[in-house]
Amino acid sequence: MKFIDLQEQYVAIRSDCLQKLDELFKKGNFILGEEVRNFEEEFASYCDAKYAVGVNSGTDALFLSLRCLGIGPGDEVIVPSFTFIATSFVVSCTGARPVFVDIDENTYAIDPSKIKKAITKKTKAIIPVHLFGLCADMPKILSISKAHALAVIEDAAQAHGAAMQGKMAGSTGTFGCFSFYPTKNLSAFGDAGLVTTNQKHMYKKLLQLRDCGRGKKRYVHSVVGYNSRLDTVQAAILRLKLKHIDEWNDARIKNAAYYSELLAGVPGVSIPSIPHGYRHVFHVYSIRTRKRKKLIETFQKYKIPSSIFYPLPLHLQPANRYLGYRRGDFPVAERVSQEILALPIHPSLERSDIEKVVAAIREVHRGV
Ligand SMILES: *Cc1c(COP(=O)(O)O)cnc(C)c1O
């Protein structure tokens, strides 16, 4: 049993992919161009967003969004304390300060009821993360952001195709940031990312920032920019894969439903909750248990792979020590990081694999 199956997606696109790559290699098209423009249009349309800009990575997608907003030294940006580290590093990289907020015990997303207390005169934006493939509570977050005139940058790196109340991840914030890192639900054969937005002026700014601040005239640069272009080859691969994303997400959702059916009622184990009206795309299927150590040992005995996302909340990361947070500051994030464990969930997982995983979980929790 594999934790992640990087081959399954290739099998689905192999012949089209090889033909396309041969075409691109023959033409010598490697940077931006028609494939990138087409992918941007198709992905924007998939997300119900007006515009999309392909970039180098999910990290760059977040960073360039912050740069578009002019965020820098002296500013503060609100970030959940439990997510992948890139969500806060991008804020630090602009010179602004990440301000952490605890998460909701059930959804693992930022807890909207705790955001207001973190807002100061210096706050410029909120970065909700649609963690594991489940959207954060966007209606509440957007109403707070409106009241305080803050931008909202959706970190949708784990949430391609996720939705809530009919709204797609990446369609309601000022920006939506996606990663196509090889293990994500929609993935490139290397690093790649993308930003969505509904605002034309932000779209234009993003196009400039990702391409060395280029203006209309050749070698005349109007703003300080970066090289964060999406490779033509990656865009071509992503276009082929985009046709399958709903089918792959549906397979994840089906696997998750089977896990949850079998695990319901196992004492001492909590299963992911899906709030009413949400489409959770299960980038990650995590359970929580106080017997995590024992469970991992048992999994190893049966050769069942598992993984911890994430063992250390952001406010306790050594790299973030300079921000001055302490253990105890965000009790929910701290508790969750001690108890959480991700099970294999990829689309090609067999029902018998799921049954095997569940049997091992039952063995450890017998008589709890
Ligand atoms: C993967 C990920 C990122 C970063 O994306 P990269 O493409 O690896 O730079 C950011 N935020 C979250 C929540 C992620 O899961």
Main attributes?
alpha/beta; seven-stranded mixed beta sheet
Helical amount: 25-40%
Uncertain residue segments:
none
- Give the mean pLDDT: 97
Terminal Cα span: 27 Å
3D structure, described in words:
The protein has 368 residues and is of the alpha/beta class. Helix content is 38%, strand content 14%. It has eleven helices and 13 strands. Strands 1-9-8-5-4-2-3 form a seven-stranded mixed sheet, with helices on both faces. It has a three-stranded antiparallel sheet with strand order 7-6-11, with no helix packed on it. The chain has a three-stranded antiparallel sheet with strand order 10-12-13. Strand 2 (76-80), helix 4 and strand 3 form a beta-alpha-beta unit. The protein is globular, with a radius of gyration of 21 Å. Pyridoxal-5'-phosphate (PLP) binds at residues 57-59, 83-84, 86-87, 129, 155, 157-158, 179, 181, 191, 193.
